[in-house]
Amino acid sequence: MSLTLQEISRIAELAKLQLTAPEREGMLTQLKTFFELVEHIKSVDTQGVAPLSHPYATVADVALRLRPDVVSESNAREANQQSAPDVQKGLFLVPKVIES
Amino acid sequence: MSAIHELSVKALQQALQTQQLSARQVTEHFLARARNHGASLAHLASDMAPQSPSPSTPGSKASCGAFLSMNEAHSLKAADESDRRIQAGQARALEGVPIAHKDIFVTQDFPTTAGSKILAGYRSPFNATVVSRLQSAGMVSLGKLNCDEFAMGSANENSAFGVVHNPWDHTRIAGGSSGGSAAAVAMGLTPAATGTDTGGSIRQPAAFCGITGIKPTYGRASRYGMIAYASSLDQAGPMARSAEDCASLLSVLCGPDIERDSTSLDIPSADFTLGLNQDLQGLRIGLPKEFFAKGLSDDVRDSVRAALDALVRLGAQLVDIELPKTELSIPVYYVLAPAEASSNLSRFDGVKFGFRAQGYKDLDEMYLKTRSEGFGAEVQRRIMVGAYVLSHGYYDAYYVQAQKIRRMISDDFQRAFSQCDVIAGPVAPTVAWKLGEKSSDPLSNYLADIFTLPASLAGLPGMSVPCGFGEGHMPVGLQLIGNYLKESQLLNVAHRYQGVSDWHTQLPGSAA
Questions:
Q1: Domain residue spans in chain A?
Q2: What is the CATH number of domain B4-281+490-511?
Q3: Are A15 and B384 in contact (CB < 8 Å)?
Q4: N or C: at which end does chain A have fewer Cβ atoms within 10 angstroms?
Q5: What's the CA gap between B442 and B35, in Å, rounded?
Q6: Three-class SS state of B306
Q7: Which residues in chain B are closer than 8 Å to A27, comparing Cβ atoms?
């Protein structure tokens, strides 16, 4: 594992986190230490083992359900928008994204 | 009769139903205690908790910092409704008994922060299923409890609204991430609380604060309205003084939520109090040798051993077992949980809820600034780790590999359960450490999760039961792990043990 500052910047961009130069350095050091701890999972022989996502699937079949695609909620626009930072006429406001 | 805050859920339930106490009287008593001994930093910033009481003495020796918000008018209204029902002979199962909720559950009547600045000012339009179920059983909500930001932490030092102090020693951590829940119960600010456990977040703080807590089988309690940290691991559960109290709360809290939680198991809840008082004769308790290896401190080992001896006297037999991948649980968990977290936390972007940073020139910068200012250091670290292990070229090597080892860990448990009925060991390698002791080194926090992570990864029910005091007269927890859906058996073992021990009835000086 040779994590670099460039990779830290790339991941931060993907994760939409803005790191200052010293924060990037700190993150690099911490993640390097972290991946030293994690590295040895790569050497575990997992040939023929299926990944487990719902733990109860260890003992029984678990199918992730889909509900019928029908309206189940009533309109609660006001309640849903009460905590939004910026709302106008029932719409969430964000900075302009289309160039005029 | 003991002081109201020393009564168990069961005793309160009886006193309320026989009208020896009114729900208003009980609620007022706990609200006053929460106000005087539970205030946190959040109470200093009124915008964080719009309906919070005026600050009493935040950060003072008398305050543990467990409560993030209260709404006394609302709580008293619910208490009056309980009194009316009791008088009308329409009392529900837990009518009038107070409870407080980890601030990871969304609530209509209180702000919800998940311990994060990014949710400052957020009001949920609905209640989490767990909260609704407890309210429908007649419980009165007292308020919301401090926790590590988005439940990420083992010390409750990662909350944006201040640390939670351990009621047994204010210079020590309460544990995490459900630290506010554990401290509030231990200090008698509420008779019960909800918690969530992703990698040990119910069991470890329960152990550190000397209370009882249970995490049910993954899928038994609804995750609807529980702010997601690591969806394939997160599970809600009750925290209270005794196994008996946990049993009555768990009966209400569990059950299918088919329409709202796709991972909810279609298995009905049960009255878990009915299984208490079963004979332990012939019960095989498995002791994983990895749980008693080096790294376990002597004081914890001695208390756990003494508890096991007590269980043997009750008829149980001890069996040596192996969980060979115990150590691998740490890297496996710390790949899977951050991966899921990085995905879950992408919804916090400054558009729909809570906080938005100031001074941005475009949409991208608004996202960047909002998330960088809104999330704390540990959350940002885990988002970074998660985004990395999910990114192109690393997904198979880390994420999928960790999911495969997760299955191997779960299979190891199934092998172990062919030799024993219940697994026992310590909850944590040491008692609660000093505030700040490990906060500069996140990895040392991670390593301390070693005994709780395996059952989390396997999705097994696990509980913490007070079993003595170690270094600095700090509580020690006995961990019990059961096979899937064996909550009743776990609670029975814990209840029988509590019938011959009194650790769970001891209160810290701060609870006076």
A1: 5-42
A2: 3.90.1300.10
A3: yes
A4: C
A5: 32
A6: helix
A7: 380-381, 384
